[in-house]
Design goal:
CATH architecture of the largest domain: Sandwich
Order of helices and strands: HHHEEEEEEEEEEEEEEHEHEE
Number of domains: 3
Shape: globular
Number of strands: 17
Helix content: 10-25%
Length: about 325
Amino acid sequence: MQSFHKKYKRFFINKLQSFFQLRFCHSLVPSLLRATKNSSTLFTQPIATFLFIALLAITFSACQKVIDVGLNTAEKRYVIEAVITDQPNSCKVLLTQTRNFDENNVFNGVTGASITISDNSAVPVTLTETSSGVYEAASLKGIPGHTYNLTTVVAGHTFTATSKMPALVPFDSLYISERTFFDKTNKYATLSYKDPAGRGNAYRYIQYVNGIKEKTVFVRDDDLTDGRAIERILFFFTDDEEEEEKKKLKTGDIVTVEMLSIDYPIYKYWYSLSQSSTGENQSATPGNPVNNIQGGALGYFSAHTSQSKTIVVP
């Protein structure tokens, strides 16, 4: 501590001496400062004490200004999240609108829409509004290889989308593997399957731990793994140590992984969303993900197969 005081004593005294030498080259101030520098304490002379405190206040003070960031109110846009799978009671559409930055982030379902889904050129099936902004067709079950068309009419606006349900790729197994990074060993859910020959296959994986859905978006295509046996480890990373600790798999945790075979436009949607949310697209600001909906709405329409497996972490 004594060396610290000596260091800054020399620094401020030299600053004061230079300051006054510029203005009073032949005054008594240099002598006063030299006398202070050679003294046994930092505040020997009253004048030096005053000058030291004044300079210290100026040096470490800063102007503070409150900046009011003006967030423009954007025009609201409709958001459609529509899925149909090869599983029963899975056809569902969520219809909402975007919200401004200063509005609460609660589900704001849009009511009164007319939503239909048709299988190839078959007669469209009208979805029933089961709650605010939620539309379902319990009897509609998708078939792999079929193309589905979504039409949404709301408040004079019409939005359309098309999605082809890929062939089912068997979900072979789910197990827990361990990996070490920076001397820390963590457990991760790992799934395996065989990618069919022929590029263009794409997958999305959804992980639940003790019933809670993992926020990380897991997607993969087969550009580099066409026709190969795949071992997919569901890594998750975060800059927040507390959040990372919560996400770690622990012995006794119940892990469920859902594997979706998705068409390529939907892969691009989830991939662009994951890149935007993590800042990996090198853009200055996050952008809306690429979507397959025509007419100006945000969101997606996905026709996909779905399989799931559950394991208890050893």
